């Protein structure tokens, strides 16, 4: 969840795929009234990879919260 802006989805997918080399299986992001939220379904080899990705995503300007969901 965070503040919507031009390039937000690009920043999220760039960090996930290029920087962390994690495969995105499914992504669903939406925005309303300047706020975005969504879910990203990932395939990771180790829980440490997910924790490191979450840390990197929190560094993105405008991204306010990142949480892991057990599905």
How would you describe this protein?
The structure is a single chain. This protein is an alpha+beta fold and 71 residues long. It has helices spanning 8-19, 47-58; strands at 2-3, 23-32, 35-43. Strands 1-3-2 form a three-stranded antiparallel β-sheet, with helices on one face. A hairpin with a 2-residue loop joins β2 (23-32) and β3 (35-43). The radius of gyration is 12 Å and the shape is globular. The two termini are 18 Å apart. The relative contact order is 0.27. The model has no long low-confidence stretch (mean pLDDT 93).
Query: How many DSSP-defined strands?
Result: 3
Largest sheet: 3 strands, antiparallel
Task: Provide mean pLDDT, rounded.
Answer: 93
Q: What spatial form do the alpha-carbon principal axes imply?
A: globular
The gyration radius over C-alpha positions equals 12 Å
Helix proportion of residues, in percent? Answer: 25-40%
Structural class: alpha+beta
Q: In which order are the strands of the major sheet placed?
A: 1-3-2
Please write out the topology.
Blueprint: E1 2-3, H1 8-19, E2 23-32, E3 35-43, H2 47-58
Antiparallel strand pairs: 1-3, 2-3
């Amino acid at each position: 969840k965070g503040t919507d802006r031009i390039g937000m989805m690009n920043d999220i997918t760039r960090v996930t795929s290029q920087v962390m080399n994690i495969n995105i299986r499914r992504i669903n992001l939406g925005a309303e009234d300047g706020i975005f939220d969504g879910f990203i379904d990932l395939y990771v080899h180790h829980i440490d990879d997910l924790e490191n990705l979450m840390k990197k995503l929190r560094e993105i300007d405008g991204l306010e919260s990142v949480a892991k969901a057990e599905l």
